[in-house]
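User: Please predict the structure of the protein below. I'd like the answer in structure-token form so I can feed it into my own downstream comparison script.

Assistant: Understood. Taking the following sequence of 376 residues as input:
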Amino acid sequence: MAGVVVVGTTLMAIHHRTLKPTPLPLSISQFNLQYPSLRFNLPRPASIMSATAATPNAALIHQHSTLECWSEFARNISGEWDGFGADFTLDGKPIELPENVVPDAYRDWEVKVFDWQTQCPTLAQPDNSNAIYKLIKLLPTVGCEADAATRFSIDERSIGGTDNMVSAFAYQSTGCYTAVWSTGSSRVFELEHCLIDPRDKESRVRIIQIIGVDENKRLVLKNIKVFVEQWYGPFRNGDQLGGCAIRDSAFASTQALQSSQVSGVWQCSSSKASFQDSSNSFLQQLIKVDGVEKLVRDEEHVVLLPKNLWSSVKETEDGENIWCEVGWVLEAGHGITSKCIFSRNAELKVYAFLRDRNFIGSFISRIRSIAPSMGV
């Protein structure tokens, strides 16, 4: 029998989820009692203060603005995010799940499985700068057993407090963020980019670039992880599955983005956070930058991914900086980009979130689309 590629995991069990009544927000003490393994710690007061505030009044204004931004961020990021996740090679090819997690029936039918069904319960308290999330991978199943889903792994992560696990974290009130995570090796770290669809705040993607550091401190992309997720309700610590309520499907083996959708001249409005000053906190709010900037994107160094996503790690022409970027093309000529700028010594300097509009690239695409009808 010829090999079959799963698109949409049509053979994966789908289960209904019955939602519980919406709970009231937990206080820090209530959360610590209910979930002791995910205990929150009160942040140091200085962690939300500007290191460059000129006067006490300026510091208070900055603190109030930061608290408001974090509070809105917490509301937009907290909840049960369910979906699918997959790993990709350097050239954007999906990586099959390990054989030991794939049911025998899939192998018997020569079905290739690339996607994990995932849960990502996330909780950020609006009145402090701590947050946690858990990435839960579920084993693939065959059949319609209502309780068939079994957890394969749980990866717990915390931002802020004495249990902080992140080296740098920049956030926007919309729920977008980027995070630098250590892996236990000085030669490898994870760069996580979370992008919220501006048209639908209940839809997001998380692209994680696995970055290696060579002997000369050059940054090298090793592989890519992608999670496509939908919001299904308030935080319940992953107690319930999305099941039939899931509004998305497995995506790893679907059509990748076309290079013509990325290349061209882009005009961008941006928000930025600086990490270059060593006195700055690891936690930074993105600040809107006045004006627009233009940049040219070509196909070189760009890894094309499904779901209109792309990834790029490249050195600037002068060799002074390395850009680690990911992007989401929302529609023709429009997208959002997350970019981290590292020094040649592998130190994070600036993070930028960009709203992109592609004038020349989208114009060329339109010309190409109508050219056949014009006999060109």
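That's the full token string. Residues 1-32, 34-56, 361-368 have pLDDT under 50 and may be disordered.
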